[in-house]
Amino acid sequence: MNQPEQIRQLPEYAELTRARRKIVWPLSIAVIVAYFALILAIAFSPTSLGAPIGDGVTSIGVALGLSIILFCMVITGIYVTYANRVIEPLTRAIVQKAGELK
Questions:
Q1: Can you spell out the DSSP letters for 11-22?
Q2: Is residue 94 within 8 Å of residue 7, measured between CB atoms?
């Protein structure tokens, strides 16, 4: 058995792939839904997005666009926190065991 195949057989590798799948799909779906909701709002209701907020010149569309950017920053922060807490220790354990396999 070659080394990549031995690494795939490690329990830490299986746990790493499970941990990545657990976080990547929900966060990806959340970003895609938010982005397409904004795009669909722009396509089907451009006049309501162009309405100003209060007496100012900032429109609802600009506020929603900035909200999407902030939402993506929060999603990125959630992923980075999870990766530092769960994915990185598993990766280090796999690297250490891969070094022992040589």
A1: HHHHHHHHHHHH
A2: yes
